[in-house]
Every structure is written in structure tokens, then in C-alpha cells.
Amino acid sequence: xxxxxxxxxxxxxxxxxxxxxRVLAEDVEEINCGTPDNAPALAKSADIPKVTKVYSGKxxxxxxxxxxxxxxxxxxxxxxNKTNATINTLYRSMSRNTFEWDxxxxxxxxxxxxxxxxxxxxxxxxxxxxxxxITAAALKRGTDYDVYVASFPQIAVGWxxxxxxxxxxxxxxxxxxxxxxxxLGHSLGLPHAHSIEAGTDMFGTPxxxxxxxEYGNPYDIMGRGxxxxxxxxxxxxxxxxxxxxxxxxxxASGTYRIxxxxxxVHKGRTIGIRVPSGNINYAYWFEYRxxxxxxxxxxxxxxxxxRTSTNLDSWYLDTTPxxxxxxxxxxxxxxxxxxxxxxxxxxxxxxxxxxxxxxxEEGWVDVQVTIPGTTPVSLIAxxxxxxxxxxxxxxxxxxxxxxxxxxxxxxxxxxxxxxxATRLILNAR
Length: 429
Ligand SMILES: [Zn+2]
Prior knowledge:
Layout: H1 15-19, E1 25-27, E2 30-32, E3 57-67, H2 77-94, E4 99-105, E5 110-111, H3 116-121, H4 123-136, E6 147-152, E7 161-163, E8 168-172, H5 177-187, E9 193-196, E10 212-213, H6 233-238, E11 247-249, E12 254-259, E13 272-276, E14 283-287, E15 298-304, E16 314-317, E17 334-335, E18 339-341, E19 348-354, E20 364-370, E21 377-382, E22 385-390, E23 397-399, E24 402-404, E25 411-418, E26 421-428
Parallel strand pairs: 3-4, 3-5, 3-6, 6-8, 9-16, 11-13
Antiparallel strand pairs: 1-2, 7-8, 9-10, 12-20, 13-14, 14-15, 15-16, 15-17, 18-19, 19-20, 21-22, 23-24, 25-26
Helix pairs in contact: 2-5
Zinc ion (ZN) binds near residues 10, 186 and 192.
């Protein structure tokens, strides 16, 4: 049966996965593809992830047009060029003009010997045939293409696009920027931008796949964001499109101003923060977007570690959780005045304000992060007692006749009871 799929529907699977003959299951209106994730383990789970690979300059993307014995290739050149230009507009903006696709189209339209029904029943045979044709045409990876994008008439496979996470993408039927741009994101090594939807529970239980929407991030092209949907700040970080001035690891209380990330402007300001959870297997990422009207209302919050603690996928949190249906996430941002507490610790997060009406790179959100115990304090022994002082309030004091300005990080203060007497002892480390 030929099934019409949403343009956002996409399947990511490895050839081996398909060859094993596993059935792709449909998940609500989307497709559950059992995405393999090749993300490297974190060096230490409390740390900001390492950049996987920096993509800069150009990568050659070659469109290979394919017809079948019973179905001619029907996408015209103007449509291909328009789609490719739309994709490049997004990629240039996302990378702040440091990366783009160098597009080319293989000059011949190839005609595969089978029918659309044949390839719908056995997609592997089409993949193999394409590989053979590339070899026969002496097209070399690195020279002629870095990624090839095979475009062919619609077949009944239950997906609109497929990627091998590297140098090959397959586009089924219409050649749209939403699907093709998404597959190219896979070719840069990125997984889907998911969401957690666990009914009224905003956090769900990590590892519980029934509490997720595979494509649940409503703003990211690797989710449901479509052809204008910038990658989220975690994914941009992974591929080297943000610098360390822009992404801050937050381990102390404070109010953090986060500027809009979904634009081409690079000003070196904070555009994302990452706050480790009380459980070091998890972390929260915060960002702000202005393109989508629903994104403007507050900070977008993404969870890291939902699949496994070493997994670098992004899981959008719906801060007004309701149901698992797609679209429920559109009210998901942490709007002004709203707050939540880390499920695994005592940290709280609250949106204090947005730069109302400023829907450009000058848009911002102020997020107040409160992590109990992280406001700097000093332990001071004075007169007959020991008191805690905030760092800015440390008084000078006197101990054993010596004037001490306040403990430095090189000094320790110990209480020692010896021979019936208790003394305070100041030591250098
Ligand atoms: Zn995909």
C-alpha cells in the first residue's frame, strides 16, 4: 500500500538494520526508526560534551537523479535548485556563515531496472544498484562528492528520507528542503531532536522509550522544525558551530542572559547554558529562539542523558506537559514567571524576563538558576564562634594574636581538641 507521509516524517536507519529485515513501526503520525546513535561517550558525565567534529568551509553535496522502469524521474531542475538554495540559507545561518553545501547535480538521470513496487518491497536492491552506478561512473567520495543525495520517485517504504549518518542520503518522492536538509544533518552526524512526553510528568523516567517523541523538538529541523528550524544549541556545539564564549557551563547560582540562537549573527555572547543535574548522568540545556512565535515566550529547555547517560541526544522538555501527541510541545518553553526544579537535585530554574518585541539576534531571555550551596561563602572563626560569611562579606579577624584578612584558598582552619583544650589551627595547604 502506498502511504502518504508527512514531509517531516523521516527514517534514519543503517543499511544493516534494513538488511536484517526488521519492520519499521509507525509511531503516532511519525515514524519510529530506531535511530542508531553513534555519539561518543562523555569524558566525565558532569562535563560539557566534547565537540564531535568541526564542520567548516564547504562539503560537496551531489544530487543523483534516479527514475524507475515504470516511473520517470519527475522533479524539475528549478525545484532542485530552489530546494538546495533553501537548505543552504539555513546551513549558512546556523553556522554563522562558516559552512555551506557545495551543490552539484550528476548530469545524467539514471534509470534503475526495477519498478517502484520492486524497490518498495526491497529497498536494499535500489541502494545496491545506486552504489554500483556510482562506482561505474567513477564518482569518488572526497573528489566528486562528500555526500550524495539520491532522489527518486516515491516508493512504499514508510519514510520520506534516509541517511547512513555519513556520505549517503536517500530522498523518497518529493524533493523538499525540510526532508533533504534534515538528512544532511544526519550526514553531519546529528541524531533526531527528540522530546520527552510522559503525560503530566515533565521529566519522565530516563530510558523509557514510550515517554518520548522521536521528532518532538518543534523548532529543530532534526525534529519537527522544518526548513527554517535551526539545530538546537547542543547539536550546534557538537559540530563546532558555537564557541566557548557562547555556551556556558553553569555550576553556580546566578541570572543568565541567553541571546537568541536562531540567527546568523555571531557576537560572542551567551546563546546557551548547560547546567548539570543533581545526578551527574544528566544535564539541562537552555536556549532562546525568536523565529517561531511560540518559541519567543521563554527559554527552551532540553534534557541530556534520557536515552543513556553517555548519549548526546537532545530531549526537549515540555514545561507545560499534557499528552504525548505531537504539537503538545508548542507550549513547552519556560515562559516568563515559570519555574521548575531539577528532578534529581535541588537546583531551580526560572524565567525572569524576555526582551519583549525584539525578535532578532537582540532577543534574549533571562534565566535565574539557583543551586543551593553554590553561593560562595567562607568559614570564619571569630571570638567565641564560627560563622559563615559570603565571600563579599568576609571580615578581617584576629586569631592567636595574628591578624588574618580572611581565609584564602591556600589555608585551612581546623578545630583540634588536645590535652583537654580546644584550639583553632590555621594551616597553609
Ligand atoms: Zn531522520
